């Protein structure tokens, strides 16, 4: 009898546990939707990576320009019409040339990156993330690598593609992308490396900044080395192939 009496109690506990789990999932979903919706119009005060960089200096072989204490974050949010037209064009040319036509994920780029990584020796990992994925990672997620974080990145990518337009995604990217130690966004990078506003950047300068994005702690925008210069030239060629200002006008009107 005692064993039989426990069965209904166990069943009730399971049902309560499932109900609680569903409530937690629903709360997290609504909170994430509200968070993304707010950033549709409001600039982020900071990102998790900014806070991490503020607290800890990055350590790695070949890193340059590491700021000593006090570690002050350089960050100024800019709308698309507050930067030179070459800036969004250079970012797309360097990072995601299908930006205007995909819906958050470029499966061709992912397949190509996976193939190159499979054939490589493992010392240089090629990424296939789109600008949308990088915004999801940079704005909403913590710094690090894990399957949980990758799943969260995919989730937030879907949300921002659904709730934002391409213009807003680009504004967020050009404002929060890391472009040097404690330096986030093209405005802060332009002020630090060229001593002028991002609204006055030339195509060559925009291409140089975009070219360091794969690893802004190793590639130098100030006093660039041969690798950074080679990447700059590739970005400039891609900018011309994309159609220059015609492409930018398409992006602005999205």
Question: Can you walk through the features of this model?
Answer:
- This protein has two domains: 10-42; 43-253, Penicillin binding protein transpeptidase fold, CATH 1.10.3810.
- The chain contains eleven helices and two strands.
- The protein has helices spanning 2-39, 48-55, 86-95, 107-119, 131-140, 147-163, 166-176, 186-194, 203-211, 226-242, 245-252; strands at 74-75, 183-184.
- A two-stranded parallel ribbon has the order 1-2.
- It is globular, with a radius of gyration of 22 Å.
What is the helix content? Answer: 55-70%
Tell me the number of strands. Answer: 2
CATH domain class of the largest domain: Mainly Alpha
Shape: globular
CATH topology (fold) name of the largest domain:
Penicillin binding protein transpeptidase fold
Going by helix content, strand content and strand pairing, the class is mainly alpha
* Biggest sheet strand line-up: 1-2
Number of helices: 11
Q: Quick check: average pLDDT?
A: 85
Radius of gyration (Å): 22 Å
Query: Please, what is the CATH homologous superfamily of the largest domain?
Result: Biosynthetic peptidoglycan transglycosylase-like
Give the SSE order as H and E letters: HHEHHHHHEHHHH
How many domain modules? 2
